[in-house]
Amino acid sequence: NQTFRDKVANERTEQDRTGFSPRAGLVYQPLSFLALYGNVAASFRPNTGFDSASRPFAPETGFAYEVGAKLDLFDGLSVTAAAFHIEKENVLTTDPADFFFQIAAGAVRSQGFDVSLVGQVTPEFRVIGGYAFIDAAVTRDEVLRVGSPLLNIPRHSGSLLGIYEVQAGDWKGFGIGGGFRAVGSRLGDSGVESFRLPGYVLTDALAYYRYENLRFGLNVDNIFDETYYERSYNTFWVGVGEPRRVTVSMTARF
Asked: Is residue 78 part of a domain?
């Protein structure tokens, strides 16, 4: 149950919404190193707030399905690939006529695929990486143009991190690594589609030392202190990403 009260008009609005969110999945393993899977799911999420006319939003509903495969290599390295299709209704986005408010887009669709790589290449070297392609667009709406890309969603994104850890000798427990995060260009405003946020690539590095139950770590994110724009709400409200960040840590395990 959601209740909204407009103090100016002295009006009170209540709405009751009930949703059913079933889901199902299936995994088939034809070979010891290969697994195939598929799943379907329905979603339901209440939308809070109200539009510029003080009307509460209908809940967001959706339906999604995914098919994929997981391949285990070299007794420690896994590759996963999946294709997906998601349809949603009443997704909140910035009102192109008044950026102080939001509107519920009639219907949107996201589809694409992703590939991930994680695990040990050798006893000393491990990798974590992934790539995603997403085609997200408005499919039905009275305000937004049908076919318009969705706000802040890049078609291409990916990351890769490699870590090397010494396994023997005086330097045993010492590790060093580096990688990058890449995000493609994205739509910066809804409705008029007047600008796009530029893509960016960030470089990160880390080092650590493990001794018995202690771990000392040093992380440097965005090494080159790149200026980038993480997300946007409209032409006048664009979020700048974090500058270079250095983190020193110590953890103990008991």
From this structure: yes
